[in-house]
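Changelog excerpt

This revision adds worked examples to the README so contributors can see how folded entries look when concatenated. The first example is reproduced verbatim below.
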Amino acid sequence: MRKITLKIDGMMCGMCESHINDAVRSAFRVKKVTSSHSRGETVIIAEEDIPEAELKKAIDATGYQMISAASEPYEKKGLFSKFSK
């Protein structure tokens, strides 16, 4: 699993967050996507890494601008996660 954090310019409200989330969901197979206009970022949880160029193309098509992307391994943390190993 991968956690991909995007810095997005141009989000002003909850509807902007929704537009970004919908664009990501329709363009890629993701487990979860959340956006925050106040932080100016979108966090994507996916099985595999998504190429930065493809992310930029999908985000830029919505009228917002992707400034940067960072990818890191993701481990689900929860109440029972330490027992599942």
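The second example, added in the same revision:
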Amino acid sequence: MVGMTVISCCAVFVCTLFLNYHLDIAGLDSQITSEYARIFYQAQVLSGKVVCIVSGGCLLVTTMVMLGFYIRHYIEVHGRELGILKALGYSRMRIAGGFWVMGLGVLLGAGAGFLLSFAIMPYFYQVQNQEKVLPEYTVHFHPILAALLVLLPALFFSLLAMGYGYLRLGRPVLDLLKGRAGESGKTQKDEESRKHSKPEKERSFLQEVRRSTVRSRSSLIFFIGFAAFCYASMMQMSFSMDELASRLMSVMVLTIGLILACVTLFLAITTVIHGNQKTIAMMRVFGYSFREMKGAVLGGYRPVAWIGFFLGTGYQYGLLKTVVTVVFEDVAGVPEYGFDVGAFVIALVSFGILYELIMAGYSGRIRKMPLKAIMEGE
């Protein structure tokens, strides 16, 4: 829920800032007389729409994926308790109804983002019209935005959580009680596919652990890749904002990118370690070193992180190139945008350092895990 709250806050913060700005300058249309001012006005409106669609849409999809992952993970971990409730006569709808609380996390994040945007909105308006191209305008509160960006998302995610929970709980009670909440119907198919598949190359134990860890937590591939994607795209984009927009936009883009990357990465790695406690304990009993355990449990996700980083690099270049050549095509004084090699190198080196530091920090949890508590299932 922490991740959903943070992502909702960032999404609503950006969308409120630009949508409120769009609504406040919409009334200036009749007051604009010069051709240059009209082109500037149209560019401002179009750029706001692009930012809201791209950032809001991307973060909406991410929050939906995170919601689905959390509910699925919760049902897998608490399958026995949920199975007991079903055995006692609780209906699927009644149990799934408890997932409405996921909307509360979205409500808190969206509300925080909405209020935060109004805190800096006066300065944002001043920066947007610092050359006085458009007539004077001030900040106004639009209740429709509060409803669309705060209340509606909270209701949507509450209903989505209950609906997805209802579907995931459609398992036989015995499967839930035996801890097979997410595996019903898959065992026979997997067995058949193994029978008809070609023999695979024999792997070492550590290679098998690394491979099975990634496959058993395949949903986390998205989150780790997304964290790297956010870091690469936002970090490099912030270097271009000084020239293309303003210092304020540069700081906003950098801050949001770092928050999203760090929060998503922390949540993903925490889930990996928590879900592989018994594997780690077994490896310690067999005498594997700390370095070998770290590589087997966490090493398999490193290629995913770098793929996400390079995808984020291509995304930010394509997005900014499109905005400059299409949105601001007729606006004078906009510099030509090209790939910033210096920003790429800085982002590449800093991401490598940050990723390895986070991995090293969380690896310490592997070393400190009490073996007896893990084996007893506490």
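Reviewer comment on example two: Residues 216 and 341 are 37 Å apart (CA to CA). Confidence is low (pLDDT under 50) at residues 183-195.
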